[in-house]
Amino acid sequence: MENSKYFKSVVKGTLGTIIFSFIGIAVLSLLMTKLVFSQGIFNMIYVIISLCSISLGAIIGARKNEAKGWFVGFGVALGYYVVLFLLTSSFSGEITFKLFDLTKLVIALAVGTLAGMLGINL
Prior knowledge:
Layout: H1 2-34, H2 39-65, H3 69-92, H4 99-121
Helix pairs in contact: 1-2, 1-3, 2-3, 2-4, 3-4
């Protein structure tokens, strides 16, 4: 029973993360039709959208689970990163996992874990 509740919480949080990311990227795309961003600014905005999405998804999942928020946040971040990694690999046509990808994964897991802790206390 406990594992089922955890899994449902992680799935709900991951879906929330994907939805928030989609909305953020859609808004960014609309802004890019009117404004010109340098590659550095675009990357920074994309990272901010991703981290905010992970935070919101981890909070949603942790509140749904009502316990072990850090563990749920970790699962949400891992789930989001796996989905993102599979999507980008399918679009690029190659599966590569470099040091930069490991760094992004570690940061995502840290943010998800901390946001999950926050979600329990809200």
